[in-house]
Amino acid sequence: MKKYLLLFAFVLFCATSFAQQKHIFSLSKNDFLLDGKPFQIISGEMHPARIPAEYWRNRIRMAKAMGCNTIAAYVFWNYHEATSGKFDFATGNHNIARFISICKEEGMWVLLRPGPYVCAEWDFGGLPGWLLKTPDLKVRCMDPTYMAAVTRYVTKLAAQVKPLQCTNGGPIIMSQIENEYGSYGNDKVYLEALRKLWRQNGINVPFYTADGATPYMLDAGNIAGAAIGLDSGGSDADFEQASKHNPDVPSFSSETYPGWLTHWTEKWARTDTADLKKEITYLLDHHKSFNLYVVHGGTNFGFTAGANAFSATQYQPDVTSYDYDSPITEQGQPTAKYFMLRNLIAKYVKYKIPEVPKSIPVITIPQIELKPFTNIWQQLGKPYLSPQPRPMEFYNQNQGMMLYRTKLIGHKSGTLTITEPHDYALVFVDGKFVDSVYRDGGKWTVKLPAATSKDPVLDILVEGMGHINFAQYMIDRKGITDRVTLNGMTLMNWQIYPLPMTENFVKQIKQTGGVAENGKGSFFKGSFELQQTGDTYFDLSKFAKGIVYVNGHNLGRYWNVGPQQHLFCPASWLKKGANEIIVFDFHRDKAGSVSGVSAL
């Protein structure tokens, strides 16, 4: 018996030692080196915040079964520090250390993409909205307010990931400095300050930067000694640009795109599989490392979707789904693109690619009849008072909605101009709906009709639809950001009602039973029974524009301008027996129905 106990102890010791085996990942002139030997990174990117934690292992296994040996992961600062000074690295899919540990358990290396700015079509590119409360804030530079917050974030995140570096027996082999900085600014002092911060906090794996394969982007975005990531790199010319910039470090395709993003009002992005195959073949033929952005996109649950803008009046919010036309769908299913890549990669790699995991069950749900529950006008709390409108962030609100109310004294009708409505507004006079205003395009005027009351009440209900996450217009506060004028007269003395529309806010609303008298801004509620749970998509095609909550979880925004009509709900947010769904709609004035369907 003693002999068997000794043998068991020896086996356990060996297993533990292997699990904690330390590695050295380094940069040579042309190659990445793992323990001194050339190593080709074949990475698939996914974002823990966009994937329910219950599915992390499944998605990692799916990437491995496609031929990947590495997972790239963005860390979204604003997801972990939603309130200034309060960090969450422990609950649900905030537990970034657990995600990285699962990668290790599944035999995958990790490229860490910690920001502080990441872009990613994520709200404010991962920067916290509460930063915008500072009136003269400057981001992605040595602005003292910004850098004080960055320092706190880096210190907290480094404590989570330091033990998970390959030098400590973990899977992290390389960490990124900022993201595509050469597309935004040229502050090398800032980039070096970030590297110094990470080093001071124990991050000792190599660093890389990621930029477009153009001279000015590489000049502004890369720093000496950091590997060069190309977004994307798919030709001799691309890699020659990297070599011209710095011939003494390796370069790789840090974002090779198997899919693309989609904005509201657009058709679903569908990328050419033949072009992708050609690019991946080139990379494999030339033994170039690469990262597929993204191998699996997931979902912009809640209010996490970002937006683009390339002019002062342009605004392009992203849809709730982050399916991205990627090899693994939003719901975790392999696509034809997935099998093409799996078969292609298998021809080049020496390691055995595992079998594709079984698909997670999908269910449909019969029609659910919804009934009026309450409306936004009966959920107004105590207002803030302000001489002129202020944006949401001033009141510690990141998104959701805000109601701005004043009396019309002087001018009673005419041309109302909102400067600027961020991002979608409904205008009312004495409770009657007048018109809606959408930020994109700069047409922010409404004709107010003559009112019969002495001092008509003007209401402007504003929805924030995602902070801009890329390029020069990132300082993007929500609500009314400057002023409101009527025939050129600035309207004063506002009551401002916060309506954050968070899960906690909706959980606390009281039933009043009716739709709004003006037909705008109503909540509808329904219940449904399930014998078995499974992934599903709720079909909102019978509604106009709003937000959906299932069993208290915010699934995200829907809008009948398209293309998205179906919102993903993971099985883990459903339960056997009774379930509840609440739909808030800006425009629907009658009860309707929803159902659960099987696909996006």
Provide an overview of this structure.
The structure is a single chain. By secondary structure, the protein is of the alpha+beta class. The chain has 3 domains: 2-346, Alpha-Beta Barrel (TIM Barrel); 365-371 and 509-597, Sandwich (Jelly Rolls); 380-499, Galactose-binding domain-like (Jelly Rolls). 20% of the residues lie in helices and 27% in strands. It is built from 11 helices and 32 strands. The termini are far apart. The model is unreliable at 1-18 (pLDDT under 50).
Q: Which key terms come to mind for this protein?
A:
Jelly Rolls, alpha+beta, TIM Barrel, 20% helix, 11 helices, six-stranded antiparallel sheet, disordered N terminus, single chain, eight-stranded parallel barrel, 600 residues
